[in-house]
TrEMBL record:
Family matches, as InterPro entries: AAA+_ATPase (IPR003593), ABC_transporter-like_ATP-bd (IPR003439), ABC_transporter-like_CS (IPR017871), P-loop_NTPase (IPR027417)
SUPFAM superfamilies reported for this sequence: P-loop containing nucleoside triphosphate hydrolases (SSF52540)
Keywords in alphabetical order: ATP-binding, Nucleotide-binding
Gene3D superfamilies: P-loop containing nucleotide triphosphate hydrolases (3.40.50.300)
Organism, as annotated: Lysinibacillus piscis
Protein name (record): ABC transporter
Every ABC transporter domain range: 2-234
Length: 259
């Protein structure tokens, strides 16, 4: 379980997060939604310790997240972030092997088990055919799938995803969501596609201006009022007949033609 209590985060004069409080249960898939600039990535960056906590506490399995030793943290938390800079030009396979690093001792060489994990993760993310390609030369969507494979190879109990479907074509969006939703681990993802969020997440956290506007099951959270208040968009909300999950049809007044 991860507990976020009274977390406030400020950059310069700008208060980015205001008193964030929520709990993520083990094994749940939690989606964070909200408009551009509302603080989703900042919240995730605190969770994966890219940012230092300034105020409040984050507790992971009854331990202060900031006190967890780096090597243990890397075994527990894997991340696919928006901007994962790669300074040197590695092959795809080398990139995925990096996911095994937290499990190894200094200079310990890769084992047959590492090889099997890496190959399986490449197959599951549909990148096995890219194994020898240079990471730097891949398309945005291919890179995203390599970063996911690397995160899977880490075999962490918590997976943090910052806009994981960004750059992916429609087939790979569903493939990625199917894949991660099927993992028996905790997942926290910032998502822009509200229909994907509604389809896959156990719970949604709606953020607005650095605060939580609402949280709960997608059925309860995705209301016309919320969509107007937070996203300033009109929507018809129905059920997807195939999945029985909420389905949003968006429109603007300008699109509605009067006869
Ligand atoms: N390093 C920084 N310096 C100054 N302001 C920053 C910095 N990083 C983020 N911000 C500001 O913090 C706010 C929240 O940013 P954040 O990236 O968390 O939003 P987001 O909800 O993830 O947005 P998006 O949906 O556009 O990715 C924004 O107003 C952003 O401009």
């Amino acid at each position: 379980m991860i507990t976020i209590q009274n977390v406030i985060y400020t950059i310069g004069e700008h208060r980015i997060l205001q008193d964030m409080n929520f709990t993520v249960q083990e094994g749940h898939f939690v989606g964070i939604i909200g408009p551009n600039g509302c603080g989703k990535s900042t919240m995730l960056k605190l969770l994966y310790r890219y940012f230092q906590l300034q105020q409040g506490t984050i507790v992971l399995h009854e331990q202060d997240l900031m006190q967890v030793p780096q090597k243990i943290f890397a075994k527990q938390v894997a991340v696919v972030s928006q901007d994962s800079p790669v300074l040197f030009d590695f092959s795809v396979k080398e990139m995925v092997y990096m996911g095994r690093t937290p499990h190894k001792k200094w200079l310990e060489s890769d084992t047959a088990s590492d090889e099997e994990i890496v190959l399986t993760c490449m197959q599951r993310t549909n990148i096995a055919h890219l194994a020898e390609r240079s990471f730097g030369q891949l398309s945005g969507g291919e890179k995203k799938r390599v970063l996911l494979a690397r995160a899977l190879a880490q075999q962490a109990q918590i997976l943090i995803l910052d806009e994981p479907t960004n750059h992916l074509d429609i087939e790979h969006q569903f493939q990625l969501m199917d894949l991660v939703a099927d993992l028996p681990i905790t997942i926290i993802a910032a998502l822009h596609d509200l229909n994907l969020a509604a389809s896959y997440c156990d719970e949604l956290i709606v953020m607005q201006k650095g605060e939580i506007y609402a949280m709960g099951r997608s059925e309860d959270v995705l209301t016309q009022q919320m969509l107007m208040d937070v996203f300033h968009i009109q929507a018809d909300i129905s059920r997807n007949p195939f999945t029985n999950k909420p389905h949003l049809l968006f429109y603007s007044n300008a699109q509605i033609k009067t006869p």
